[in-house]
């Protein structure tokens, strides 16, 4: 789906043949560059108890759940927009920002230009791998095994688009909490069969 090269509207991505794997490939390259400097080791998730009448910060458990919910919502927003290749969907910016949002928008724009829509849904099973800082987390790392076997591209007129082999792909995401809103800022999706 979002892995095709744009034509003139989004020239910085190269053209390849395929299906949603093109978007995944595009996300893989861009997100892996962004994640190169990020370690994904686990960090402590102990909660510091506030004393002296101050209001406690959200617990790491609440932050982890909020980050997971934002990650799931980003995929749900993308699935919704991909049904019509609506690259202008206001849903996309609710749970994605930065390079992730750019990749989603560019991929959908390419799909729309090529008269492709996507049906079905991917299967995700995200897990938090780190939260930082431990007190009042603002950053989260997620590991997932994204499965696009049931998320298939079709031509607007009904036939199957040229789809590449679907399957399970190791996926990593970085999320940031800004003013209480978690958003996916970096996304890396590996090749089929990596999880």
Description of the structure:
A hairpin with a 6-residue loop joins strand 2 (127-132) and strand 3 (139-147). Residues 2-56 have low confidence and may be disordered. By secondary structure, the protein is an alpha+beta fold. It has a single domain, classed as Nuclear Transport Factor 2, Chain: A (Roll), CATH 3.10.450. Helix 1 runs antiparallel to helix 4 (98-113). The protein has helices at residues 20-35, 60-82, 92-95, 98-113, and strands spanning 116-120, 127-132, 139-147, 151-155, 168-178, 181-189. The strands form 2 sheets. The protein has a 4-stranded antiparallel β-sheet. Strands 1-4 form a two-stranded antiparallel sheet.
* Biggest sheet architecture: 4 strands, antiparallel
The overall average pLDDT, rounded, is 77
Number of helices: 4
Number of domains: 1
Distance between the termini: 20 Å
Q: What's the CATH first level?
A: Alpha Beta
Strand order of the largest sheet: 2-3-5-6
The helicity comes to 25-40%
CATH topology: Nuclear Transport Factor 2, Chain: A
**What structural category arises from helix and sheet content?**
alpha+beta
Rg measurement, Å: 18 Å
Please give the number of β-strands.
6
Order of helices and strands: HHHHEEEEEE
Shape: globular
Query: Any low-confidence stretches, pLDDT <50, length ≥5?
Result: 2-56
Per DSSP, what share of the residues sits in E-state strands of 2 or more residues?
A: 15-25%
In the CATH hierarchy, the architecture is Roll
